[in-house]
Every structure is written in structure tokens, then in C-alpha cells.
Amino acid sequence: MGFDETQCGHVALVVTEAASNLARHAQDGELLLQAGGDTLEVLALDRGPGMADVARCLQDGFSTTGTAGEGLGAILRLSERVDVDSSPGIGTALLARLRRQPADRQEAVETAVGALSLPRPGELACGDAWAVELRPGRAVFLVADGLGHGPDAARAAEEALPVFHEVAWNGPVQVVRSLHDALRSTRGAAVAVAEVDAEAEVLRFCGVGNIAGTVVSAGVTRSVISHNGTAGHEAYRFQEFAYPFLHDALLVLHSDGLGSRWSPERYPGLALRDPSLIAGVLYRDFKRSSDDVTVLVARPAAV
């Protein structure tokens, strides 16, 4: 990724401290790393005792296990951004973001989108994929889930990406039609395309198959509508639906590797967290071990 020796040392320390906390405190812990461009995201997710006072735990010298209590403080100092969500009795999710180059303020505002995509346990290839196209005031998102899992599913999902980037601004219906045509030589995929227009405060959506979409605003959850079918094979209806997408709204798109019975009421304050952290918490609590999983989270600040 082009990190220099000092930056690589920072990454090593952040990962080591995050993993050490999982080893000490977690009943069920997982460490995820995601690289994109010049940015590395570290997600430490656990089901454990949680933290009653996150701010205090981030201070140097505070420890519940007799250590020096400098681990979380070191992560905070060495990372460009740190965000934590912790609930006593449920667990803790920690996000640390490190960059090769400092982000300028405009870029930081216009890319408030987080996602993770992981293969079914035991598989190396992920049959899911996601992508985003950004312009000032607008964003278009794709989630694709290749039929089944393994290399053939991965090929179907991956072939959707260049097509999406080429036609992303043609409107959700035309994008899904283009994906349907492009995936005919593959086993096919469930696909969903969401376009956010921040100025008009509207979300336009078109989906084929079982990609779930949810808009959360003012504590109210609204599911978006996809039609049955498989892009590349049997897809008979392409229809756009429009939904209000106000300044406080949150968009969540996910494949069926994530259970759909999550509710924002269970996580007070989570909707205000970094989108990558939100995606991590949903993955931790609702992933299914029988399939690939992708979770994408975005809010109007992303555009």
C-alpha cells in the first residue's frame, strides 16, 4: 500500500493492541482488515463484557485486567480516526483507520460510506461485491451477490463491477438492465442499485433478487423493494422506487449472508457512528455462517 517504515510500525502496533484486547476480554472475537486506496481499516469486533464508560477506557493508565492500560490510548494516538461502540453485556466494536496520506477535509466529508465483504467460512473467494460512485451531492451504490458461493459466484459478482462503474450515472433501472445483460455468461447474481440525491433528499432504488435495503431516519426503519429474479438469467421486471432520504437518514444495503431481523432500537446512538463501524456491528451480530456476506452503510454526508 506504499506505507513507509514508520507507518507500517503504526499499523503493527494498532493491530497488536486490538488483537490483545480481543484475547483478554472477548468471549467471541474477530479482527478484520480492509484495504482500499491509501487507507487501511482495522475492525475489532467482540461479544464480551463491553465497556460501561468508553471515554475512560480510552485514557492511558485505565485497565480492568491489571495491565498498563495504554493499549486503547496507543490506538487512538496512532490512527487517523478511531470510533468505538460498546454495550455492557453485548460487546464492543472498535474501528481504527490509518492512511498513507492525511485526508483533506473535503474528501473526508464526501466519503462517509463504509462496507465490508467477506466469504463464507472455509471459502477463499467471496461471491459478493460492492461498489460506489461519488459526485458532489450525489452517490450511487451497488451490492451484488453471485448465485451460490465459491469461485463461480465470485466471478459473477466481480463482472458486475466494471459495468457498474461505466454506467452508474444512467439511473438505477438502466444500471440494473446493463448488469442483467452483462452477467448472461455467468451463473447470475442478485443486484441492487441505490442512487442518493442529497439536494433533492431522495433515494432512488432498483433491485433484482434478495439484496435487502433499509432506510433509517429519526428512528423509523423503512425497507426498500426489490423484485424477484436473478440478473443474467431470469429477471422480468425492472422498476425504480423513490424514498425520502433526509439529512439524518442512514442507508443499509446487505446480501442475504446477513440476517434481516436487526433493528436500530437495539443500538442507541449507533446510527451516529462511522459507517464502517455500523457495518461491523451488524456483521458481528447478524452474520450467517452459511453464505458470503456484504454490508454497506452510507448517510447523506457521504455525498
Question: Could you characterize what this model shows?
Answer:
- This protein is α+β, with helices and mostly antiparallel strands.
- The chain folds into 2 domains: 5-99, Histidine kinase-like ATPase, C-terminal domain (Heat Shock Protein 90), CATH 3.30.565; 109-302, Phosphatase 2c, domain 1 (4-Layer Sandwich).
- It is 26% helix and 32% strand.
- The chain is built from 7 helices and 14 strands.
- The strands form 3 sheets. It has a 5-stranded antiparallel beta sheet with strand order 5-14-13-10-11, covered by helices on one side.
Lay out the secondary structure.
Layout: H1 5-25, E1 28-36, E2 39-47, H2 54-57, H3 71-78, E3 81-87, E4 91-99, H4 105-110, E5 113-118, E6 128-135, E7 138-146, H5 151-167, H6 172-182, E8 189-197, E9 202-208, E10 212-217, E11 220-223, E12 241-244, E13 250-254, H7 275-286, E14 293-298
Summarize the structure in short.
The model has no long low-confidence stretch (mean pLDDT 89). Strand 6 and strand 7 form a beta hairpin.
Find the structural class using helix and strand composition: alpha+beta
Q: Which outline best applies?
A: globular
Q: If classified by CATH, what would the architecture of the largest domain be? A: 4-Layer Sandwich
Can you tell me the CATH topology of the largest domain?
Answer: Phosphatase 2c, domain 1
